[in-house]
Design a protein that fits this description.
By secondary structure, this protein is α+β, with helices and mostly antiparallel strands. It is built from three helices and six strands. It has three domains: 79 residues; 53 residues; 58 residues, Head domain of nucleotide exchange factor GrpE (Nucleotide Exchange Factor Grpe, Chain A, domain 2, Roll), CATH 2.30.22.10. Homodimer.
């Protein structure tokens, strides 16, 4: 045998050994490859589920933000006039006082009557304008005292009125879209004292 033949045989044996070892390695690689895709698939499914949950949470959060913004805008539209209304209320008070001050002076002549009529017309026009913007006057005479809408200026005995009811209004209150702008300043009926019993008799 020549050296070339020996070398050829050696190469052939190495190739056989490599060929026999390769199927075993391929089988081991295939087993691990099959296991790896299954675990990768599970990991990807879990990740997809997590992304979907995050997306749903984000959508819900966006809807809540949108709803809150709509409510804030609605409130801003409804109550934007509040400061303006507060500034106008003294005008209404003055017009009402002007009408009240002419009461009982009808004998003074036509001038007072015409002034009163003009002021009443102006007051009615003004109150109508306020009403268009949902400004409502509170004139609670005869109603039970409500600390949420009334400010008690004093309490007086009033035998013909219910205790804790409003017997007089010092200054009328106002609401804007059912929100109190100014409480009514009122005089409240005091409950009558119970008759004292003479315990020594």
């Amino acid at each position: 045998m020549s050296a070339d033949e020996n070398r050829n045989e050696q190469v052939e044996e190495e190739l056989k050994d490599t060929a026999e070892a390769a199927p075993e390695e391929e089988t081991a690689t295939e087993d691990s490859a099959e296991a790896a895709p299954e675990s990768e698939v599970e990991a990807l499914k879990a990740q997809a589920q997590e992304f979907q949950e995050q997306m749903l949470r984000s959508q819900a959060e966006m809807q809540n933000v949108r709803r809150r913004a709509e409510i804030d805008v609605e409130k801003a539209h409804k109550f934007a006039l509040e400061k303006f209304v507060k500034e106008l209320l003294p005008v209404a008070d003055s017009l009402e006082k002007a009408v009240e001050s002419t009461e009982g002076h009808e004998s003074a002549g036509e001038l007072v009557a015409s002034i009163r009529e003009g002021v009443e017309m102006t007051l009615n026009l003004f109150m109508g304008s306020l009403g268009k913007f949902n400004v409502v006057q509170l004139n609670p005479v005869g109603e039970p005292f409500d600390p949420q809408q009334h400010e008690a200026m004093s309490m007086v005995p009033a035998p013909d009125a219910e205790p804790n009811s409003v017997v007089a209004v010092v200054q009328k209150g106002y609401t804007l879209n059912d929100r109190l702008v100014r409480p009514a300043m009122v005089v409240v009926a005091k409950a009558e004292d119970a008759p004292k019993i003479d315990e020594q008799a």
